[in-house]
Amino acid sequence: MEQNSKRPSWFMNLVLLCCGAMVALFVVSVIIFVCFGPNVTSVGLGPQLTAVVLQNIVVFILPVVLLALINKSVEHRKMESSLWTEHGPTLRSIALVVLVYIVALPAMNYIVDWNQNLHLPHALNGLEKTMRAMEDGAQAVTEQLLNTESWAMMLMTVLLVGVLTGMGEEAFFRAGMLGSMRHGGVNRHVAVWTAAIVFSAIHLQFYGFVPRMLLGAWFGYVMLWSGEVWTPIIAHALNNSAVVVCTFLAHNKYISGNFLETLGVPQQGEKPFLAIASAIATALVIWAFMRKRGEREEVRGKR
Question: Are 274 and 260 contacting, i.e. CB atoms less than 8 angstroms apart?
Answer without folding.
Answer: no
